[in-house]
Amino acid sequence: RYWIVVDKIVTDRERTIEALWHAHPNCSTSTESDLSPTSRIVNNNVGIDIVPSSSSDGVKWNNVTTIKGQKSPVLQGWYSPYYGSYMAASVMSYKAKIPSGVNIVAWAMVPFSGTAPALSSVSTTLLTHDSDSAVIEIVTGNESSTYTVEL
């Protein structure tokens, strides 16, 4: 029904981090910006929703943009099927500030086929974490599942 992606980031100072989710050039992309911004990548009637976790002490993704065919300040948003060939492709860029110490970032990757569900139909919450594990809750419709992930 979905995949869970968890990253552990250890830093000695506050930093701005960026998570990049790349799409194929044939795909369309969209983002719903709210407290936990969800992105959607679609090709025909098949797609995936990228749902970042929310928590009271977790990372707040406050800057979500789509990059496509960017040349400056760095190359971003390009697809190259083979050397010497390239085309613009969307990249969902999530940026956030994190404090020093151990930071946990969790995502649910929710695939769909046919009619796309509402972007807000899935939520991911980072319930607790320490340096060794994270507890994540995923809510889809009326169903809630909790997972413990070893880091």
Question: What would you note in describing this structure?
Answer:
The model has no long low-confidence stretch (mean pLDDT 90). By secondary structure, this protein is mainly β. The chain has strands at residues 3-11, 15-22, 28-32, 38-43, 46-54, 63-68, 78-79, 87-88, 90-98, 101-113, 122-129, 133-140, 143-150.
List descriptors:
151 residues, mainly beta, eight-stranded mixed beta sheet, three-stranded antiparallel beta sheet, 13 strands
Strand content: over 45%
Helix and strand string, N-terminal first?
EEEEEEEEEEEEE
Describe the main β-sheet briefly: 8 strands, mixed
Radius of gyration equals 16 Å
SSE-based structural type? mainly beta
Instruction: Determine the oligomeric state from the structure.
Output: single chain
- Helix tally equals 0
Unreliable residue runs? none
C-alpha end-to-end distance: 22 Å
Average residue pLDDT: 90
